[in-house]
Each structure stands twice: as structure tokens, then as C-alpha cells.
Write a structure and sequence with these properties.
Length: about 425
């Protein structure tokens, strides 16, 4: 297998340059959903190249939504900034530092995202239909509850939904804004309490035409209620790894669908998430554990012809991560990949940065099962051989792959 795969890589690789990105843009064709991954949450090149590819999709193919693996309330601050809503005297740096303050802060409060955010604000100044920047994750349970209650409280004409919201969110009051406390206590909840959150969302959807679309207030209300409903389910299931993973990814797909619906038939969305979310789980060992992900569900719902997934990888370098969940971040060395891994094969083919485009003519050449590295926000390189390589059929997991031989750690804004 190694020699055959190395030969296929040599024959089908394109240089990672403007011409290579041209190949990806051409391969995307008329797809309205482009999912751009990352092999870690702490690698500078993954963020900067993803941003450059996104700029081209905005400029050349009129994509108008960026959806990221971040919390809705935090990303809404960035969305308001790039669209010119609210305070015009602030900067992208201040917005990112002040809004993305939940660990791991470096994922979005970093120099790479700061540069893209400033570019997007300038770009939007020239557009009638401005490009949005939205968070589709669900960790912001209490922040989203606050957003819903604050909005409804300031708008007394929506009294019915306000009373409904107060009743629904009473369930969460005893847990001192600590989702883990809620998760440990959900076994004592009645179905009635759990159903209140779902029925609130149903009520808001039923009445959504009443809400103002100024500065996307209507979208913000619905999305925060959606987060509250699905975050409740996620924290209730968080002790069951596969189930809670699936709940989270289903939520992100539901959020993507809401964004596309809100922005109309011409909406085109770019999704920024880790490879483990955007690379089709049915083409990995994840399926053996009953796990699905965004990439798989989006392909199933919209069809492969309307979607395009781009993966990332590196041979070695440095990365921002932590020793344990919640610990301070640090720069960690990423060791060279072993030969019999996807990254090791890319390195063996050549030490050059490269792009591979997978299509019906060549996918089978890249579909032997092989380990593909994934680094999270918690990382110990000494154990990565045992836990950081996901067996994958790479040619079918993605539609394109960007490989950087040597990568560097992300540049956080917050020390």
C-alpha cells in the first residue's frame, strides 16, 4: 500500500500556491456549501490558508455566510462588527478578546482571525448583501438563555413568549451557571421540565414573523433558543461520548440549515470546523462507534454535488494546545508522522506543500484505510500514536486536501 499511495500522491498533487487554489475553486463548481477543516485548533497555517480560500469564495463565487465552530453569542459580536452594527469605534482585536472569553479562547481570539475579521469588515462596506460571521456550536447554554430573556424583556410586546421563556429557563436556575453541574443533575428532572425548552423554541418559530429583522434580531432570538434546547440535551448526555458528540453535530447541522433558510435561496455558506467535524464520518472508524458528524449529514441532506469538503494536515511543527481541559495553553512540538500514516505518506511523496483534489476518477487511489492525524485543544504528543490518528478513507472523506509540511503555532490575542 505505501508505495502505491505515494505514487498516486506524486501523480495527482498540485503545488500549494495561487494556481493550486484555482484548482480547488474550479472543483467546488456550483456547490453552495463548502466545509473547510483544520487538523488542529492551534495551527497558524490552517487558519490563514482557510481565510484566503474563504476570501476567494466570497469574491469569486458570492458566498455570503461564514459559520464557525464557536458559540453563537460570541460570534454574534464579530458578526455585528463586520456588518457595521453598533459601536463603530472598536476594533476586531477588541471584539474578539471581549467576546471569545470562554476556554479555549485561542480558537477565535487570535491574530489570524483578527486579520480576516478586519478584511471582512472592509469587504462588507462595499456590499449590499453583507457576509455574515456566525457561531454554530452549543456550549453557550447560559449565555444564550441570557440573550433570549434580555431581548424579550426589552420588548414588552412579546409578553407571551417572555412568560414562556421564564418558565422554561427556571429549570437551569439552581446550577449556578455551571453546565457540568446541570449535566450531573439531569437524572432528577422530569420530562415536563425538559420539554419546556423545546416548546419555547416551537413558540418562537411560530411567532418569528413578529420579530424585527433589524440587525438580525429575529435570527439572533431563534438561534439562541435553538442553542438552549440542544445544549440542554448535550449536557444531559455528556457522560455518553458518542451520543453527546452526535447531539452536538446534529445541532451544528440544524444551525447551518437555519442560516441557509434565513438568508434565502441564494445563500452560500462556508463552514470552518475541525477535520473531525467536516470530513465525512462514514468514511472513518467513527462509524464503528455509532458516531456521525456535520460533513456526513450535510452530504446526505444536500447531496455531494452541492457540497465540498476540504481537509488539512501537516507532517510536523508546533501547535497551541493544553495539557488538560481548562489548563493554560502553551506551544507544543508536533512530532513527525510515522511513515504508515496519511501525513507520513504525503511527506514521503515529497517535502513540498501540496493540494490534492479527489474526484470520481481518482478517489479509489486514496481510499485504502490509513491513520489520519487529528489534534484537539488538549494534546500530548507522547501518546498521539494511540489516540490522535483516525483511520480514514481519505479520498472519500474529503473532496480536497491541503498539506503543509511544516506548520507553526497559532498567535493568540489573549495571554
Amino acid at each position: 500500500m505505501p508505495r502505491k499511495l505515494i505514487t498516486a500522491i506524486k501523480e495527482h498533487a498540485h503545488p500549494l500556491n495561487d494556481h493550486g487554489l484555482d484548482k480547488i475553486i474550479a472543483a467546488i463548481g456550483n456547490a453552495k456549501i463548502v466545509m473547510i477543516g483544520e487538523a488542529s485548533h492551534g495551527t497558524s497555517e490552517f487558519y490563514s490558508i482557510r481565510a484566503e480560500l474563504s476570501k476567494r469564495l466570497i469574491n469569486e463565487k458570492n458566498f455570503n455566510i461564514i459559520a464557525v465552530e464557536g458559540d453563537w453569542p460570541s460570534a454574534q459580536a464579530a458578526n455585528r462588527y463586520v456588518k457595521g452594527y453598533g459601536n463603530g469605534n472598536t476594533t476586531a482585536r477588541n471584539v474578539l478578546i471581549n467576546s471569545f472569553d470562554r476556554w479555549p479562547t485561542w480558537m477565535w481570539a487570535n491574530e489570524e482571525v483578527e486579520q480576516f475579521t478586519e478584511w471582512l469588515k472592509q469587504k462588507n462596506a462595499s456590499l449590499d448583501k453583507k457576509v455574515g460571521f456566525y457561531g454554530i456550536d452549543l456550549y453557550s447554554l447560559f449565555e444564550s438563555i441570557d440573550e433570549v430573556l434580555n431581548f424579550l424583556s426589552k420588548n414588552p410586546q412579546y409578553k407571551v413568549d417572555l412568560e414562556h421563556a421564564k418558565k422554561a429557563f427556571t429549570c437551569f436556575e439552581p446550577y449556578n451557571r455551571m453546565p457540568e453541574h446541570y449535566a450531573l443533575s439531569t437524572s432528577h428532572f422530569s420530562d415536563e421540565c425538559i420539554n419546556e425548552v423545546s416548546s419555547l423554541l416551537t413558540s418562537l418559530r411560530k411567532n418569528e414573523e413578529r420579530y424585527s429583522d433589524q440587525h438580525e434580531e429575529d435570527l439572533n432570538l431563534i438561534m439562541n433558543a435553538l442553542v438552549a434546547k440542544n445544549a440542554e440535551a448535550y449536557y444531559r448526555e455528556m457522560m455518553k461520548d458518542a451520543i453527546s458528540w452526535n447531539t452536538r453535530d446534529r445541532h451544528m447541522v440544524e444551525a447551518i440549515n437555519e442560516l441557509l433558510k434565513y438568508h434565502g435561496e441564494d445563500a452560500k455558506i462556508i463552514i470552518w470546523e475541525h477535520n473531525t467535524h467536516i470530513g465525512d464520518a462514514s468514511e472513518t472508524s467513527m462509524k464503528e462507534d455509532g458516531m456521525i458528524n456535520v460533513g456526513q449529514l450535510i452530504r446526505e441532506q444536500y447531496g455531494k454535488e452541492n457540497t465540498f469538503a476540504v481537509g488539512f494536515g501537516t507532517f510536523y511543527g508546533t501547535v497551541i494546545a493544553a495539557d488538560r481541559w481548562g489548563d493554560p495553553y502553551k506551544v507544543i512540538d508536533v512530532p513527525p508522522s510515522k511513515l504508515r500514516t496519511w501525513e507520513g505518506q504525503l511527506h514521503a511523496a515529497s517535502k513540498e506543500d501540496k493540494i490534492l483534489i479527489f474526484n470520481e476518477e481518482n478517489r479509489d487511489l486514496f481510499n485504502d484505510w490509513i491513520g489520519h492525524r487529528a489534534i484537539g485543544v488538549v494534546y500530548d504528543p507522547e501518546f498521539e500514536v494511540y489516540g490522535n490518528y483516525v483511520p480514514s478513507r481519505v479520498g472519500s472523506r474529503y473532496d480536497a486536501f491541503i498539506y503543509i509540511e511544516h506548520t507553526n503555532a497559532l498567535h493568540p490575542l489573549i495571554e
